[in-house]
Amino acid sequence: MKQLKTFAFFIAVSLTNLIFVQSARAQLQAIPKAEKHRIILLTDIGGDRDDEQSFTRFLMYADQYDIEGLIATSIRIFPKDKHRPLDGEPQPHYLVNFINAYGKVRDNLLKHSEGWPEPEALLAVIRKGVKTGRDAPFNIRTGISGEGSGHYPLDQLIGDDKDTEATELIIKVVDRDDPRPIWIPIWGGSVELAQALWRVRNDRSEEDLKKFISKLRVYAWGHQDASGLWIQENFPDLFYIVSTGGILYSADPKLHSKEWLDTHVRFDHGPLGALCPIRHGELGGADSETFLGLIPNGLSEMEHPDWGGWGGRLKKQPGSEKQWIDVESNLDPDNLGHTISRWAPHFQNDYQARLDWCVKEFAEANHPPQPVLNGDTSLDAIEITAKPGERIELDASGSSDIDQDELFYTWRFYPEAGNYFGWIDIENENNKSTGFVIPKDAAGTTLHIVLILTDDGSPPLTRYRRLVIHCASLKE
């Protein structure tokens, strides 16, 4: 009899878990889906281990964007690093190895979210770039080669007979009948993009060139060869971000230590995490800032780099409307990376949870909450116009968590994202619903209010909503 009761209890628990998982999957399918960004990645993976760390993270968000190109570019030459090639030859086999490891955990990832691409589809868009002979003395911040640099002259890399499968892929993807822009994160050199732009300018009308350029969005981690500066000088209307902020440089060291990386990525999290290397005794992955802002989380709006988010906060380069550079943070003016790493506790927890998805069942892992702002269930920023003295209601009712975790609400005025230099006093900033009155001296300015919604899962996960208020002038 005791055995029968134990068996019956086991069956009941199993059915309960099955019902929970089926219900969770149904809820997962019902979650509003943000439009995915299209991506062509340029990476000098195989050189600095930083790119291997970044590519591990990149693949852990492969369900969040459409990956349409993976280009292995020429690597920087580090003579002291004996395990690295010394001739600058691109290393696409690193991409293959990481994608094969991703393929081994994909089935488990599909238990937690939809949209994970087949590994074969990713392998099919790998291309090998050209060897440029870049070496370590090249200054990534200024784009100037040091004395003795092995960087080839640009006329040996860009021109009529310099097309490759990589440049042809870029052109083909941009030409595809899809209204969405193409984001090009650049972790290494940019010669392949430069040649694609040269080819289009050479072969097409000025109108068609403008159409081609209008579909491109570039986010480069520094200028790692001279072609980046060439692109900016020759195509000033191209949306082009250059940053060297880094995602963790000013974050709590515990969030990027060897211990953190070993515990949450490298060990007991499947074959993809196991490939992630140690770099300088810790987790680097500075290149990750080029795509973190493309993850739909309700905070980042990369069409507005000055708004701030997981991809940092940028400002227009003087004299340009399309080129963007790092901005000093009001919170830490001496550290450019603080505009990104201020969010590090949130995006590191997010990364940790996704590594858990590689090996855990749905009921054993945490999943992000779903914020609702004033009845709007999307993750898009809401923009409104209001008058000084008008009361603005803030309501997160309807926000939910697929794991039934408790939710914590925080409403924040984000002054750096706007141009009002006073302060907004939000009443009861930790309530689900609250409000504030627009100050009289805010006339003619723009205010950003952010809902920060965090669950109490393990690890706690955070999503956001942004309200942008354009304050009418007193004359209106």
Structural overview:
This protein is an alpha/beta fold and 476 residues long. The protein has two domains: 29-357, Alpha-Beta Complex (Inosine-uridine Nucleoside N-ribohydrolase, Chain A); 366-471, Sandwich (Immunoglobulin-like). Helix content is 29%, strand content 17%. It has helices spanning 2-30, 50-59, 92-109, 119-123, 165-175, 191-203, 206-214, 227-234, 258-266, 270-275, 289-292, 338-341, 344-357; strands at residues 37-43, 65-72, 126-128, 182-186, 216-221, 239-243, 314-316, 323-326, 382-386, 391-395, 407-413, 433-437, 446-455, 462-471. Strands 3-2-1-4-5-6-8-7 form an eight-stranded mixed sheet, sandwiched between helices. It has a four-stranded mixed sheet with strand order 9-14-13-11, covered by helices on one side. The longest helix has 29 residues, at 2-30. Mean pLDDT is 89; it is low at 141-150.
What are the defining features of this structure?
476 residues, alpha/beta, Inosine-uridine Nucleoside N-ribohydrolase, Chain A, Immunoglobulin-like, 4-stranded mixed beta sheet, 17% strand, globular
